[in-house]
């Protein structure tokens, strides 16, 4: 008997050079013994598992298997999560009235949390209390949930009731302990984020409540400075010395580059005057960042509101702190997210304040001080001039003085930085022809030295639009 066995398996997978990997097995056998038949059967099974792996790597809708060197290993997450496509059906058949657990992820973030769900204590907690669903941010199936649950970052977890009303929300980077904490607060203690939101609307404002509410909003990526200000305002002198509240002040006084308090706040003053206490928990760079940047923000607010007393308090802080040494803002994660570029923050703020108040005698004193200190420092002069060029300053006296600083900077060292600054200032005062010449020169110098010229190109486009 003549037997033909033809196994054709096509496995396609993009590789680095963009070609397609293609395997075509065509096996012709005239006589097969039983051991040979068994061997071919095993080969077929292995090939099918590799095909399952290739399909499963594409995301939801795979065949449900993952082959990673172990024979027939099933994806463990499939025993916990279902596709959101089955949401309506599973919610209707939810006889045990379990809570609903959503896991939304991006392709880049899925690996961050998968391991947490496979933790035995977490998986048992989920299977026992929830119907669980997951989907990727790149699938169309996520769209209804994006608006309903205000999803703005991934990964994200939503805990909902049987009617899909949000109980709690957790986004960003977190570990299994944080996840279990949110689950327990939500379904066992009934104190998820929604509980706190409703309580706040109903007038709850105790210190302990606001303290916990802040952290829940942070975990949901919904925190604003209003809640922080409310919490800090509730702190008494006795509260502030508590280590939990010291840590709270450190983390939230200047959150996401927004000041929740100003230098006249008692909690800020305690924090600043007791930096050695805060040093027990955090590095000096982070502490100085909070102290200096809140003072800078206070000075800006005082200039806008023409509040002289508040401005003087802010300047006193800036004059006493070493702004030049700690000019970078280092957040609680240790990341540098901003810089104070000008070399003398107190002097710069004084110039801006006196300009806004049209106090010409004091403004001239500021100009004299700056020229005496920095007349031979092209970089400092350029930074002062550049900072003025970026402010919404309409004072022609101040703009013309900044042009003088820029010219002097160019005399000391003509480069793409100060020629760009000069071009920007000329653009600000409406001298577009001169601005065009300087902008083109700045680009040429940048090209010659291999430096970034993107901002100057944008400026050049604006100048040309004004000239046409």
What are the SSEs and their pairings?
Elements lengths: L33 H23 L24 E3 L3 H6 L6 E7 L4 H8 L2 H10 E7 L6 H6 L7 E5 L5 E6 L4 H13 L4 H9 L5 H13 L5 H9 L3 H4 L2 H10 L1 E2 L2 E2 L6 H8 L1 H4 L5 H22 L2 H13 L7 E3 L5 E4 L5 H12 L3 H15 L3 H13 L5 H17 L3 H13 L3 H18 L4 H14 L1
Parallel strand pairs: 1-3, 2-3
Antiparallel strand pairs: 2-4, 4-5, 6-7, 8-9
Helix pairs in contact: 8-9, 14-15, 14-16, 15-16, 16-17, 18-19, 18-20, 19-20, 20-21, 21-22
Describe this structure in words.
The chain is α/β, with parallel strands linked by helices and 468 residues long. It folds into three domains: 1-74, no CATH class; 76-189, Glutaredoxin, CATH 3.40.30; 255-467, Alpha Horseshoe (Serine Threonine Protein Phosphatase 5, Tetratricopeptide repeat), CATH 1.25.40. Helices cover 56% and strands 8% of the residues. The chain is built from 22 helices and nine strands. The protein has helices at residues 34-56, 87-92, 110-117, 120-129, 143-148, 176-188, 193-201, 207-219, 225-233, 237-240, 243-252, 266-273, 275-278, 284-305, 308-320, 345-356, 360-374, 378-390, 396-412, 416-428, 432-449, 454-467; strands at 81-83, 99-105, 130-136, 156-160, 166-171, 254-255, 258-259, 328-330, 336-339. The strands form three sheets. It has a five-stranded mixed β-sheet with strand order 1-3-2-4-5. Strands 6-7 form a two-stranded antiparallel ribbon. The radius of gyration is 32 Å and the shape is globular. The N and C termini lie far apart (88 Å).
């Amino acid at each position: 008997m003549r037997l033909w066995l033809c196994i054709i398996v096509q496995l396609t997978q993009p590789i680095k050079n963009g070609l397609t990997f293609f395997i075509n097995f065509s096996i012709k056998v005239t006589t097969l013994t039983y051991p040979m038949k068994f061997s071919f059967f095993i080969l077929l099974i292995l090939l099918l598992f590799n095909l399952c792996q290739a399909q499963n790597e594409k995301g939801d809708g795979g065949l449900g298997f993952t082959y990673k060197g172990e024979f027939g290993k099933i994806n463990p997450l499939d025993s916990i999560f279902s596709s959101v496509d089955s949401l309506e059906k599973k919610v209707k058949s939810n006889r045990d009235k379990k809570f609903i657990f959503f896991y939304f992820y991006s392709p880049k973030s899925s690996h961050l949390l998968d391991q947490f769900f496979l933790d035995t204590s977490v998986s048992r907690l989920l299977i026992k209390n929830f119907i669980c669903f997951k989907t990727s941010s790149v699938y169309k199936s996520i769209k209804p949930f994006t608006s309903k649950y205000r999803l703005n970052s991934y990964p994200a977890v939503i805990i909902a009731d049987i009617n899909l009303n949000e109980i709690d929300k957790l986004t960003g980077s977190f570990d299994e302990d944080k996840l279990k904490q949110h689950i327990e607060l939500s379904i066992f203690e009934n104190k998820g984020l929604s509980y706190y939101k409703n309580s706040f609307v109903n007038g709850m404002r105790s210190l302990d409540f606001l303290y916990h509410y802040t952290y829940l909003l942070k975990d949901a990526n919904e925190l604003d400075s209003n809640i922080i200000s409310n919490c800090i305002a509730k702190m008494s002198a006795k509260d502030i010395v508590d280590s939990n509240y010291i840590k709270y002040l450190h983390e939230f006084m200047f959150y996401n580059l927004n000041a929740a308090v100003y230098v006249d706040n008692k909690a800020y003053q305690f924090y600043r005057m007791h930096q050695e206490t805060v040093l027990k928990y955090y590095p000096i760079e982070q502490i100085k960042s909070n102290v200096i940047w809140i003072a800078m923000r206070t000075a800006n607010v005082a200039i806008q509101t023409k509040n002289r007393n508040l401005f003087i308090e802010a300047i006193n802080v800036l004059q006493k702190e070493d702004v030049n040494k700690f000019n970078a803002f280092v957040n609680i994660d240790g990341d540098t997210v901003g810089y104070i570029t000008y070399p003398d923050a107190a002097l710069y703020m004084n110039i801006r304040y006196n300009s806004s108040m049209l106090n010409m005698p004091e403004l001239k004193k500021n100009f004299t001080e700056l020229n005496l200190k920095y007349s031979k420092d092209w970089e400092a002069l350029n930074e002062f001039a550049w900072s003025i060029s970026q402010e919404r300053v309409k004072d022609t006296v101040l703009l013309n003085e900044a042009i003088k600083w820029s010219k002097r900077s160019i005399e000391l060292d003509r480069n793409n930085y100060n020629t760009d600054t000069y071009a920007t200032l000329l653009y600000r005062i409406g001298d577009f022809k001169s601005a065009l010449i300087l902008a083109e020169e700045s680009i040429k110098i940048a090209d010659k030295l291999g430096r970034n010229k993107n901002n100057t190109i944008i400026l050049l486009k604006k100048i040309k639009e004004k000239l046409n």
